[in-house]
Amino acid sequence: MNRRAILFVLALTVSISLNVVLIRRVMMQDDMRLAELLHNREQHGGSGLSERTAVWREPSRRIQNNSKDDTVTPPGIGEGIRGAVKNSNHGSETENNVTTSNGTSLTHNPLPPEAVSIVHPQAPWTFNVTAADQFRVEAEEATKTQNLFVMTQKNVKLNSSLKYQAEKRYFNITKDLYSWLPRDQPFGFRKYKTCSVVGNGGILVNSGCGTEIDSADFVIRMNLPQMRNYTVDVGKKTNLVSANPTILRHRFNSLRSKANQEAFLNYTRHYQDAYLYFSAFTYRFCAKLSFSAYKAVQNAKGKTTNATVIFGHPQHLDLATKFWKGKYNIKEKRLTSGLYFVGASMSMCEETRLYGFWPLYRDRQGRVLTHHYYDNVTMSALHQRVRHHSMPEEFAVLRGLHDRGVLQMTTDRCSS
Fold first, then answer.
1. Segment Disordered: which positions (predicted)?
2. Reduced to 3 states, what is the DSSP secondary structure of residue 302?
3. Strands (DSSP E) along 66-116, which ranges?
């Protein structure tokens, strides 16, 4: 082996070693960050994790409670996380061959299982009507969801200009764009009794939550998730599904050809007559991709699809971002789709139930989780690619709302 080859191998080895160290450090920082968040929220009155965070969820009962939940709860999973993170600072870290929740063998250095395997008796979740209504009113005043969630002919003017949500550029409300918009909001204020908001977390694998998810009056899903072969865990019903325009670029070659468009239509067929919600006006490139999707769906309407494409209003996304980040001091560049649609659901639905929301690498039984229920990529492998989101902070906020009875978050197996 000549000298140049030896130097190249040495440089490559050093680079890989540095990357591994950096990734582990980021993982540890996020784990400690989540532990600190949960500790702080537990110290400030019931917005951390409580005894409701049990291992296997027993059948919950819906209790109408108009008083504030002042139940004193024993130490919850937060203590387990803090202890595990503290213990993990001692000794060297090692990588282990593990089996994921969907049976795939992977090499992974996840959060220690001690952090998520704390067992506490299950307390029935209590729907606090007063707290839910108070939150709904506050959020509505800040975000104007009733009027701005979907771009309509009532909340924009023909030939006017609007600013892209994340750019300084403006776009025009042309005659064509205006004609594509619904006359009014398709979703009313507290129109539905119950809503399921379904995240794509690997914690849904083997959850058996499909029937419970489908029992809601309205089901919301995020980012065009795969559902075929997973219905036992995630259900079949979809009323509203978000579609990040970048998915069109990566999965369907930006819908450039007829074959790409047909592949997109075939993929979305299992959403049946759902609304496909595109954040078309976040960036300029999103608009072009979203318009292509609208045309493809419209041309196939009544033939291979009955879906309806709708566009999010950029002002609503801006207001929602300010509300969540301002009220809860969430430090992140952009909200996740999950948190954004939780807010929308609170406006549309009397009672909101969450599934598939879990930011940790293992569940409470120590199973290694994949990033999504439909893939084999561990959460740590994608850690560097989701740095613009702060999932631990969002999770702590949602758990706080769960504990107050504002919404229900299911992070265990559902009852059969």
1. 43-113
2. coil
3. 96-99, 105-108
Q: Please report the sign of the dihedral spanned by the C-alpha atoms of residue 11, residue 17, residue 18, residue 23.
A: positive
> What are φ and ψ of residue 410, in 5° steps?
-100, 120
Give the whole-number percent of the chain exceeding pLDDT 70.
Answer: 68
Burial of 343 (0-12, 13-18, 19+ CB in 10 A): buried
**DSSP designation for 205:** T
Instruction: Considering only residues 292 and 104, tell me which one the structure prediction assigns the higher pLDDT.
Output: 292
Q: Residue 122: inside a domain, yes or no? A: no
24 within domain boundaries: yes
Indicate whether 120 belongs to any domain: no
Catalytic positions: 389
Tell me the C-alpha distance between 393 and 245, whole Å. 25
Question: Are the beta carbons of 336 and 391 closer than 8 angstroms?
Answer: yes
pLDDT at 334: 87
Please give the pLDDT value at position 340: 97
In the chain, DSSP finds a helix count (H) and a strand count (E) of 13, 13
Residue where a domain stops, chosen among 115, 148, 180 = 115
Of 291, 172, 176, 185, which is closest to residue 243 (Cα–Cα)?
A: 291
Its domain, for residue 276, covers: 128-410
pLDDT(234) > 80: yes
pLDDT of res. 332:
78
Query: Which residues touch 316 (CB under 8 Å, ≥6 apart)?
Result: 143, 144, 145, 148, 149
* pTM metric for this prediction: 0.75
Q: Are the CB atoms for 184 and 154 separated by under 8 Å?
A: yes
What pLDDT, on a 0 to 100 scale, did the predictor assign at position 84? 32
* Residues 6+ positions from 400 with CB-CB distance below 8 Å: 41, 46, 47, 48
